[in-house]
TrEMBL record:
Pfam families from the UniProt entry: Abhydrolase_1
InterPro entries recorded: AB_hydrolase, AB_hydrolase_1, AB_hydrolase_fold
Keywords: Hydrolase
UniProt KW Magnesium keyword: no
Gene Ontology MF terms: hydrolase activity
Gene3D superfamilies: alpha/beta hydrolase
Name of this protein: Alpha/beta hydrolase
Organism, scientific name: Gigaspora margarita
Classification of source organism: Eukaryota, Fungi, Fungi incertae sedis, Mucoromycota, Glomeromycotina
Classification via PANTHER family: AB HYDROLASE-1 DOMAIN-CONTAINING PROTEIN, HYDROLASE, ALPHA/BETA FOLD FAMILY PROTEIN
Domain AB hydrolase-1 stretches: 30-266
Length: 284
């Protein structure tokens, strides 16, 4: 297991991160992974380690989540700020050229970075997993995030019962893979205290205020879009929108898979590595 390191920002907040790399790599350009809403860097469940067989992989917790901190619980959280956290953190590591993979909200942050890349950094390729230009289910999610507080399950069994009420394709997959089911439930219970509901709510408010649709045509880097056809949280039409509006894309649709592709579609690491290792741009 890679050790957790910390980057202290100018505002006093800290970004917790881990670096994964193998002794022999095919791609010299590092890959930075951006986590989705409320998730921590541990949720990749080995996905990052598989990608690290081909290039250095860097994972981190967004501000206020996991082992990353905010100075105050009332500090602002916006898509712009989380994107800035990412680029400042990349500069801190001395990286000039990099690839980016964002999942869900992390995909939205990655799109924002691609549209606002600092002049001293070069984004080579972009991967968006179960992502969106504008979140499609605002009303549905609003009902959840308007709750005054969230009483997370306190035992592994309670967590498993709760997971079975989630997205159908996800629940079906967990029942078919009991070892992963146990591992994910244990992870969620063990990280309840470092996934503050208040921070998750404010991440959601940031998502609601951000719509990148009209600017997608300005993204020029080769872009791989990976999306489950059974995604109930961010429907496949959102991936089709990205594919239609971004000039240089490849859309990889995963049949019978929902929103949690790191868990339910680990084979997509092959697609990602093939895309990142290509010397020529992906053709639209």
């Amino acid at each position: 297991m890679s050790e957790t390191r910390f980057f202290e920002q100018k505002d006093g907040s800290e970004i917790a991160y881990r670096i994964f790399e193998s002794e022999t790599i095919n791609n010299e350009i590092p890959l930075v992974l951006i986590m989705g809403l409320g998730g921590t860097k541990e949720i990749f469940m080995g996905y990052e380690e598989e990608l690290a067989k081909n290039q250095k992989v860097i994972v981190f917790d967004n501000r206020g989540i996991g082992e990353s901190t905010v100075v105050s619980q009332s500090d602002p959280i916006t898509i712009e700020l989380m994107a800035q956290d990412t680029t400042e953190f990349i500069k801190h590591l001395g990286i000039k050229k990099f690839n980016l993979f964002g999942g869900s909200m992390g995909g939205h942050i990655a799109l924002h970075i691609a549209l606002n890349i600092p002049p001293d950094l070069k984004l080579e390729k972009l991967v968006v997993g179960c992502g969106f230009a504008r979140h499609p289910n605002i009303e549905q999610a609003d009902k959840f995030f308007q709750l005054p507080e969230m009483n997370f399950p306190k035992t592994v069994q309670e967590q498993k019962d709760w997971l079975l009420k989630s997205e159908k394709s996800y629940a079906d997959y967990l029942l078919e893979h009991p070892d992963k089911f146990d591992k994910i439930a244990e992870y969620l219970v063990s990280t309840n205290d470092i996934r503050p509901f208040e921070i998750c709510k404010r991440q959601w408010e940031a998502v609601k205020k951000s719509d990148l649709t009209s600017r997608l045509h300005m993204i020029k880097v080769p872009t791989l879009i990976i999306h489950g056809e059974a995604d109930e949280l961010v429907p496949i039409k959102e991936a089709e929108l990205l594919d239609r509006e971004i000039p240089n894309t490849q859309l990889y649709r995963i049949p019978k898979v929902g929103h949690s592709i790191y868990v339910t579609a680990p084979e997509t690491t092959i697609i990602v590595n093939e895309f990142l290792n290509k010397d020529i741009a992906v053709q639209a």
